[in-house]
Design goal:
It is built from nine helices and no strands. The protein folds into three domains: 75 residues, no CATH class; 86 residues, no CATH class; 49 residues. By secondary structure, the protein is an all-alpha fold. 59% of the residues lie in helices and 0% in strands.
Length: 213
């Protein structure tokens, strides 16, 4: 009985020790990548140091950049940047962006519509509670001004990452979407009925002319 307990403790200890070593190796790779990149990208490094992503490795997002000099074509497009962000930020945040005008435009290949990095910055990503954040309430109009000329203070009153549900911030958009869906269904139904009635009338006229001959 004692041997079994000792054996179980030994196995658990080995597992914990292995996980600890793995964490050290991964953190070592992260630090090494940061040190190598920081030799050239000092300004970006300073931005990232104060970011909520400061614990992330550069190569965690820039997976194609593994050698120096960097190969051609490693620039991150808007669509690729969204995919990179979605690899960690899933659920409501990712889905709400995909359903937004910005998300749909970027998905269709637009290089003008806002991606995640246009609003949150590429490296200096700060929480909305930080007064220096691009998405802090006081700074949102200025952030939107990168694309929208003369944005009103009302830009800061909206909610970006909302869900299309019958309750909550997405309620107006939810019922607006429902209204247009039913409006489209009703219009198409009436159009089909109109076409069928017109065809029925034409058929009656054709049959009436045949009887007169």
């Amino acid at each position: 009985m004692i041997k079994k307990k000792v054996g179980a403790i030994g196995i658990k200890g080995f597992i914990f020790f292995s996980l600890f070593i793995l964490a050290l190796v991964l953190s070592g790779k992260t630090v090494l990548a940061q040190v190598n990149c920081n030799q050239c990208h000092t300004e970006v490094a300073n931005e990232l140091k104060n970011s909520v992503h400061s614990v992330q490795s550069c190569t965690g997002c820039h997976k194609d950049v593994t050698t120096y000099p960097h190969p051609e074509g490693v620039e991150v497009t808007k669509k690729e940047s969204v995919a990179i962000c979605n690899s960690c930020h899933t659920g409501r945040v990712a889905e709400s962006y995909q359903h937004s005008f910005h998300g749909k435009a970027v998905y269709l290949g637009s290089q003008k519509a806002a991606s995640c990095t246009d609003c949150h910055s590429s490296h200096r990503v700060l929480g909305e509670d930080n007064p220096n954040s691009q998405v802090a309430k006081a700074n949102i109009p200025q952030t939107c001004a990168q694309c929208h000329e003369n944005p009103s203070p009302g830009f800061a009153e909206g909610v970006e990452h909302f869900e299309l549900t019958s309750m909550g911030p997405g309620k107006p958009m939810y019922y607006t979407a429902k209204f247009f869906v039913w409006l489209t269904i009703t219009a198409m139904t009436l159009l089909v009925i109109h076409i069928e009635l017109q065809l029925y009338r034409d058929l009656r006229n054709i049959l009436a002319k045949r009887k007169q001959r």
